[in-house]
Amino acid sequence: MNEKNLKEILERLYRKYNRRSRIPPDPLQFVYKYKTKADREIAGLLSATLAYGRVEQIENDLNKLFAIIGKSPFDFTLNFNKTKRESLAGFKHRFNTGKDIAYLLELLKIVLKEYGSIENFFAAGYSSEDSTIIPALTNFCDRLYLMYENRLGQKVSKGFQFLLASPANGSVCKRLNMFLRWMVRSDDVDTGLWESIDKSKLIVPIDVHMARLCKILGLYKRQTITLKAAVEITESFQRIEPADPAKYDFSLSRIGIIENCTGKLRKECQDCELFPFCEK
Questions:
Q1: Is 222 helix (H, G, I), strand (E, B) or coil?
Q2: Does an H or E element contain 197, and which?
Q3: Cα gap 244→197, rounded to integer Å
Q4: Parent domain of 232
Q5: How many structural domains compose the chain?
Q6: I need a labelling partner for 278 at 20 to 30 A (CA). Which of 28, 62, 118, 129 fits?
Q7: Comparing C-alpha atoms, which of 127, 122, 102 is closest to residue 112?
Q8: Are 74 and 38 in contact (CB under 8 A)?
């Protein structure tokens, strides 16, 4: 199937799934619980960094976290103190604890006081000359790691490195690339809060489900899910949608989340737009 036909299929998926009403149970739903840009970008980073594991567990744990944080993530972060740190003591999501979240909020407090927003901090390490967002994302993580070491006087913990996974450590960076998609792209699903970053530089967020679908579509050939595989997949999408390679990410991911796609043919598969690829 040529790229023109594939784009037609992807556009049908986009029209079908790329709607605000389709967001739950995606962690992006927590961003839209807040009204202001300041609250939304904090909520977005917290939601994205904890977006691993079972969908139900992610949703339950984020509900618990934001119940602690309260009506304004921005105010909670800007005024983060010992009392707020203690309120996170009992929080846990799989490999991360309330201590990891507290460390992140403590660093973001510094970021907000110096730069005013996460966007401004990120943009300080971004160059429009770079072919992708990866150098800026690496810079973002490196600066926060350095801030961690200087602030706490110790090496970055494994828990924090997992929470804020850097490209420099070999991570595929699915969660941070998802956060960037939420912030940079603008449509009925993505917020478009960040206007200083070019969406054509985004990398498609890749996990096992997305990788399986992209393999079915013939968008990459690598055997393992790595950052290089994510770049290869993104380059394939760029040939279809050069200015917006992450456009179809949300729509494709709904096939796994809403339609329970496992990669194995079932009776229900016949109604899926991707069925012509899967039956081959």
A1: coil
A2: none
A3: 12
A4: 3-278
A5: 1
A6: 28
A7: 122
A8: yes
